[in-house]
């Protein structure tokens, strides 16, 4: 089952979710490692190239994920029975929106850092994303600071997201987490 239903996530939504999560954690780890490197470290340039390339590919993945999300049925929350359930669903929706906004903030600031000198971003030598040059003074420094803060904020929200999923699984004992781990049998699912 590739597509979502109102009850379950489809295979593509699950793949998009976990691939995005894996890449975000990997990029955060690589970013933390890179800020400790000196300009003359042998991995400095390679790490930067990898970080930029994966960042561009992650941006494309997130755009595809959003297109998929908006062209599929919306998966309903497990429960909306109580005011607490409704509040938790509003908070979860807000966190998801801020996660996407944070990702796009990272993409924009990463692009501004990487292209402030006017050079294109080479994506694993497969293709180039054109540079726009410096749009404002100290662009790479300002964008770098914002990039760092957004990255830490995003990881904080991801931690909140994980806590929420675990709460649903272990305390509420509902299918919220399971629906993002397991593709349902197509013969048993109705929309």
Question: What is the residue-mean pLDDT, rounded to a whole number?
Answer: 92
Topology order in helix (H) and strand (E) letters: HHHEEH
Strand elements, count: 2
Radius of gyration: 19 Å
Fraction of residues in helix: 55-70%
SSE layout and pairing:
Elements: H1 11-35, H2 44-70, H3 83-115, E1 121-123, E2 127-129, H4 139-172
Antiparallel strand pairs: 1-2
Helix pairs in contact: 1-2, 2-3, 3-4
Explain this structure.
- Helix 1 runs antiparallel to helix 2 (44-70), helix 2 (44-70) crosses helix 3 and helix 3 packs antiparallel against helix 4.
- The relative contact order is 0.15.
- By secondary structure, this protein is mainly alpha-helical.
- A two-stranded antiparallel sheet has the order 1-2.
- It has helices at residues 11-35, 44-70, 83-115, 139-172; strands at residues 121-123, 127-129.
- The protein is elongated, with a radius of gyration of 19 Å.
- The mean pLDDT is 92.
- The longest helix is centred in the last third of the chain and has 34 residues, at 139-172.
